[in-house]
Specification:
Structural class: alpha+beta
Largest sheet: 4 strands, antiparallel
Helix content: 40-55%
Number of domains: 2
Number of helices: 14
Number of strands: 8
Shape: elongated
Radius of gyration: 28 Å
Order of helices and strands: HHHHHHHHHHHEEEHEEEHEEH
Strand order of the largest sheet: 1-2-3-6
Strand content: 5-15%
Length: 359
Amino acid sequence: MSTKASTEFRKFLISAARRDLDAARAQPVWNDPSFVAAEDPKQQALALSAAECLGRLVLFGGAPTNGDFLPAHLVPVAMAALRDRIHWASEEAGRLGERWDMQPDFERRDELCMNAIQERTEIHAAYLGLLACIERIGEEAFAEELGELEAELEQYDIQLAHHKELLATVASSNLVRNLRDALAEEYRSATPWWLSEELEQLAEEVVDETEKLLADFRRNAPVGPAPPLLAFPTQLFQPIAAAAKSQPRQLYLVWESPDRRIQAICSVPWPGGPGPTLRIVFRSDNPEALETVRGAAVWLANVEGRIGPDNTAEFQTERIWESLNRGGRATLAVGSPQAFWPVEAEALEQAKAVLDEER
């Protein structure tokens, strides 16, 4: 269903496509095959851009005219360029989950997913543009090349579809909805899968499943009062502590997972405070429990790290102290969505006792 926003978006896409096609037609290689140099990156970019612009007119109802179609001598150039782009995009799609995990916040994760959807849409437009040109020339002339191109597109979709749940997180964004609503009628009735409403439905299913898992977790969690505090005193993380009255020792700061199966332990020399790096070790009597957090994102005082294969996470002490000085608290959170781990009561009492000696 078209909205005012999607209608304006369609007009923008079509006008931009026509403008770029006008610029392409003004190049000598458009009208004179003798200028063709198939390995020339500039000509490849020109031909691929023209194919994509033509495809945009097809995809978004721009009614292409005869002058909008690529001349026959540029079709092989555009096909070669599109295959290179599909190869690159397929590799990027294969790394989408890894790159999503590396992003520092959800805003950048959304941007990553929207870029992936936009990339797939642009490649689809270029394919439609080339297909329209090939149908005019005669499919038999490019049957083998077209078959290879479509096989690579299929592999690209397999790589991207592995991350449907990530793409679903932006399925209701303005960009995706406007792209979907701007489609020409024939493509709206058979929407490409990465723009379809099925992704929105998948997002709802993921939320429902998460809520069920949380309900099961709360139902099966050990009964008893949870420790009331989530944070250690901030003074313990000061990189350079003042001269202290207490005897030298190692303080062990301990957090417990909400189900109490895993401990996160950070050793801090006292007096003197931590060194340049803070290292947290995750321990459990249950190896399967550790498997659930290995590789997960972890936040100490709102500074993000990651639990490595050796069940440890490291943080720069300076960044932790900067966060605490801005009003942060010495909390530990693990996973996505974040789950805050309470501090172990005994470790908290020992830390307070050491600080009391300084007064």
